[in-house]
UniProtKB/TrEMBL annotation, chain A:
Keywords: Antibiotic resistance, ATP-binding, Nucleotide-binding, Transport. GO terms for cellular component: plasma membrane. It comes from the Bacteria. This is Daunorubicin resistance protein DrrA family ABC transporter ATP-binding protein. The lineage of its organism: Bacteria, Bacillati, Actinomycetota, Actinomycetes, Streptosporangiales. GO terms for biological process: response to antibiotic.
TrEMBL record, chain B:
This is Transport permease protein. Belongs to the ABC-2 integral membrane protein family. InterPro entries: ABC2_TM, ABC2_TM_bact-type, ABC_2_transport, Nod_factor_ABC_transporter. It comes from Acrocarpospora macrocephala. One of its GO terms (molecular function) is ABC-type transporter activity. It is a multi-pass membrane protein.
Amino acid sequence: MLQAIDLVKRYGSVLALDGFSLSVAAGEIVGLVGHNGAGKTTFVEIVSYLIRQDSGHVTIDGRPPSASKGQVGVAPQHIALYPSITVREHLVLFGKLAGLRRTALDSAIEDLTVALRLGAFIDRKTAGLSGGQQRRVQAATALIHRPGLLLLDEPTAGADLETREAMLDVVKQRAGDGAAIVYTTHYLPELVELQATIAVARNGKIIARGTYDELVEGLPGEVCLIHDNEEEVRVSTTQPAATLIDLLSRAERPISTIEVHNPSLDDLYRSLAVSDAS
Amino acid sequence: MLLDTGYRAGPIAALRESVYRIGALAGHNTTIRLRDPGQMISYLVMPMVLMLVLKPLYVRAVEGGTTKVVTGLLVMFSVFAISIAGNAILAERTWKTWDRLRVSRAPAAELLLGKTLPIYLVMIVQQAILLGYGCLVIGLPIPGNIPLVLMSILIWAFTLLAIGALLAAIVRSHGELSVISDVGALTLSSLGGALVPLSLMPDWAQVAAHVSPGYWALEMLQAAVAGDTAGTLLPAAILLGIALISGAFAIRRLTRGWGRGGLL
């Protein structure tokens, strides 16, 4: 569905994309992760046809982004809503811009109202909504026409639990319906829940791609025991369960706290950075 | 299944789709305008009050004082309305919504039409109401050639809209827009003879007036109200030229987005 090959984009002296390549099949969710400045948003903007790449190629269903307008749904990183307009009016506007007519539009609004839990505030102006509610409205405007390609740029940033749950449910459902989805985030657990393919961006290129298990395989987590006298024992390990059992069997004092940390996004970045440098 | 949006190929179907989207955008922007009518009310009420207060002064000072006070204040406060156009476009940048529209199926020309049509209508209505008020309350003679007056209003509103769009495309904040539109409007409209009749201004100002769009607007409107077709056409052509140049620049800038720079 989406093919981006060797994209290069420069802003003055800053190289935002440096050979960025990524493909997403219909029905696939690709979680695009990377630190700020890794090139995620620039990539989303190129695919959305908001900016042009300096070199490289992008096709959406075999056509360039300029010929695919309206086939893409974009929820940008920042909230971009009209403050004096209600949620329903937003959905009507973006639905009509996508070409939806009465019955299809009403039906799409009804579906999204349920799926993203908008019912309690659908006739309220967006200026009065919480951050999480605004996130859901923004996602709804991107989803209203059931696009074949969805670009969701940190759709749950700063969102509450309800927003996160609703968002993940809808993303899974749309992927199940055949949409290709690019989902940028800083939260690895979301991508695990979405069973997404993870693509790691660094310095304007994709440096690794795979499932969560494939990418974190061999990365050390950490087991931490805190004794009743506040003495701490921390062990870095690739086998947290076995290590925990071993530590517990050898503990000589009562234990007040047990902490087990699985490999995090930072651990993944660090390991990839080391391998990239070497 | 993904939704069939009803999009069909073919020129007639494409035109119908285009009109549908422009209608959606214009309706949306009209709603935004109506929910924040403060500026529109100000620029309607203030000239009405000033016409009443200044009319005796104008009548005593110059021949045709009634026409001059009505058209002068109409031009001055319609120039102030540039900020309505500028703010409406610049707000899309503040809200970061312009790029969301650019991602949609609507091409840039439709976005601009949908955005500016309601503002254009506001400007036309403002000028029509002020002229009507001038006739009914201030004593302006009812123009003999209404189509000529209507054409003048349409051209002047188009010029103001294009200048407003240009300003919105180049300023970096609402503060900058406010400074440029308020100071610029006052300077250009005063220089053009909108506040003080040109014949009472110093010689250098009478010469400098020709660079002000306000001067040409006054010339055009006063000629139109007097039913002077020949006297209306030259200033109308000059204003159209200003509008087309400003509009072309604004369209070029707005279709590419604002990028990531700037103060907003």
